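Appendix B. Raw example, untouched.
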Amino acid sequence: MTLARRLPLAVWSRETFEAGALMSYGADQVAMCRRGPVFVDKILKGARPGDLPVEQPTKLEFLINRKVATALGLTIPPVLLVRADQVIE
């Protein structure tokens, strides 16, 4: 998607990132999905859904795709590469 339009695309999910984006910064979707059963358990034990607290993500991921950057003729600054949770070569 990024390469087809020759645009550097920044996204918020790993799934979209893996489809060809330049970088991603957002909540760890797997960690968020693992919290779902905790809420289901509480509801099945009688808690009212409206009384359950809203949770914020506790882990954010920063992903960089160097392959896409190279194809677009972009240089990723070293300070960003060091901060990334994952760099795809």
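End of appendix B.
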